[in-house]
């Protein structure tokens, strides 16, 4: 019998999406009797600690951008290059110590470009292979692409959380390229922490708001929503995306819930006639489990979310508005004319990929 392998799983720390979409990856690894160590910081750390109490977890800080309102996130990242490189060097030193302390055989990094190592088989997960820019900022795109590809090529394997099929994919031009930075790339199918089984019933409500993403925009978005929903009679549930907080609050027609477990959250999504959220890619993947009607409000400056929102609207799936001009009453009315996100069929691709990892680790160790 082969020796049990130890895998370090590390999501990007910006918001919760990169951590939540790793839930099925972690579950698949554990089904294969792999020992899983988790590495994260801030809210992703709190989420994973609560979701997988049986796993060891370590703090691993990383670079966090300031979300701009007047330029794209891609350009903001380019301007933050010196700070980003300093944070990357610090994180890589911390990674080497974790590998030694826990005898890590493999590292699975979700959008943390710096977490590769020659001492462990390294897998990179991303759907952001074609960074979106806009207007005059497009002149930076070739430089940004070369920059991120230089890091991706340090990895042994690339996983893309979508279908390869152009007819039913979710990420469009973000993930589907004519040429990939690694030859060893695989589409995993959409990754969601939710499953359509054993979903609890909830009390009737009219609107579900799912807050997510990095600060300060998460809090700005929350205030806009609460100010407008309080002027309606819509019975509203707001999931605040704060796993570090506890205690449900009720204010008139609004119920505020800092954090829920996966099963309870699935109940809210399943029961919601309409959902307001950011069009973060992880959220979009979650919505396709249930096929829900949604209103998407992109994070200002995040061109990826703007691209996804427009693509989903053009397909007739979901209505979107910009945060600066968001009007709740108008959005609720307009959203009724959209058919809702398509339900994506289940696939076993992830189970196959995780099952193949021990052999790949063994092969790299022998080289």
Would you give an account of this structure?
- The chain is α/β, with parallel strands linked by helices and 367 residues long.
- The chain has two domains: 6-190 and 346-366, Rossmann fold; 207-335, Rossmann fold (3-Layer(aba) Sandwich).
- Helix content is 37%, strand content 15%.
- The protein contains twelve helices and 14 strands.
- It has helices at 17-20, 23-31, 42-51, 73-79, 81-102, 141-152, 217-229, 262-271, 281-290, 303-314, 328-335, 349-366, and strands at residues 6-11, 35-40, 56-59, 106-110, 121-125, 157-160, 185-187, 207-210, 236-239, 249-251, 254-257, 275-277, 294-296, 319-320.
- A seven-stranded parallel sheet has the order 3-2-1-4-5-6-7, with helices on both faces. Strands 10-11-9-8-12-13-14 form a seven-stranded mixed sheet, sandwiched between helices.
- Strand 12 (275-277), helix 9 and strand 13 (294-296) form a beta-alpha-beta unit.
- Helix 2 (23-31) crosses helix 12 (349-366).
- The mean pLDDT is 89.
């Amino acid at each position: 019998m082969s020796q049990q392998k130890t895998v370090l799983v590390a999501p990007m720390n910006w918001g919760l999406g990169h951590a939540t979409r790793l839930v099925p990856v972690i579950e698949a690894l554990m089904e294969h009797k792999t020992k899983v160590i988790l590495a994260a910081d801030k809210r992703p750390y709190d989420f994973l600690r609560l979701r997988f109490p049986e796993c060891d977890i370590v703090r691993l800080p990383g670079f966090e951008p300031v979300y701009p309102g007047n330029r794209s996130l891609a350009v903001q990242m380019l301007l933050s290059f010196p700070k980003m490189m300093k944070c990357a060097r610090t994180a890589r030193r911390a990674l080497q110590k974790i590998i030694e302390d826990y005898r890590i055989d493999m590292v699975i990094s979700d959008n943390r470009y710096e977490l590769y190592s020659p001492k462990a088989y390294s897998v990179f997960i991303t759907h952001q292979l074609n960074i979106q820019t806009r207007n005059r900022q497009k002149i930076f795109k070739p430089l940004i692409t070369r920059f991120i590809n230089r890091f991706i090529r340090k990895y042994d394997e690339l996983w893309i959380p979508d279908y390869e099929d152009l007819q039913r994919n979710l990420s469009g031009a973000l993930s589907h390229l004519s040429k990939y930075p690694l030859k060893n790339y695989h589409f995993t199918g959409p990754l969601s922490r939710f499953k359509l089984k054993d979903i609890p019933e909830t009390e009737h409500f009219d609107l579900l708001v799912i807050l997510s993403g990095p600060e300060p925009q998460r809090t700005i978005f929350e205030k806009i929503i609460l100010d407008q929903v309080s002027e309606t009679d819509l019975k509203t549930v707001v999931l605040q995306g704060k796993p570090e907080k506890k205690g449900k609050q009720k204010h008139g027609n609004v119920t505020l819930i800092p954090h829920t477990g996966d099963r309870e959250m699935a109940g809210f999504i399943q029961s919601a006639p309409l959902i307001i959220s950011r069009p973060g890619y992880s959220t979009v993947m979650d919505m396709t489990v249930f096929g829900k009607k949604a209103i998407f409000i992109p994070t200002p400056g995040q061109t990826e979310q703007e691209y996804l929102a427009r693509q989903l609207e053009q397909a007739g799936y979901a209505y979107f508005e910009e945060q600066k001009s968001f009007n709740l009453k108008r959005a609720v009315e307009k959203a009724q004319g959209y058919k809702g996100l398509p339900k994506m069929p289940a696939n076993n691709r992830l189970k196959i990929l995780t099952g193949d990892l021990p052999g790949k680790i063994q092969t790299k160790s022998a080289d």
